[in-house]
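Late entry, written up from scratch paper. The run itself happened at the end of the previous shift, but nothing got recorded in the book at the time, so transcribing now.
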Amino acid sequence: MRVFVNAVPLEVGRGTDVRAAVLALDTELERKLAAGAAFVTDARGIEIPLESALAEGAILRVVVSARRSGGESDADA
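Output as recorded:
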């Protein structure tokens, strides 16, 4: 079935969950999800759980946090 992750069309199997769809697009994005540095929203902008099963035509957006870790300086501010 076709789903969209960050506007990229992907063909995934029936029953694929959000995490697997993101992993099919980009392993680094999936790592950020696992680390809590990113989350996924649906087409309406509502955050959805990574274990949610997808339906045909699902539209997902991965949102990466812009926060810096505590040890990084903000010299440009």
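The chain has one domain: 2-64.
(Scratch paper discarded after transcription.)
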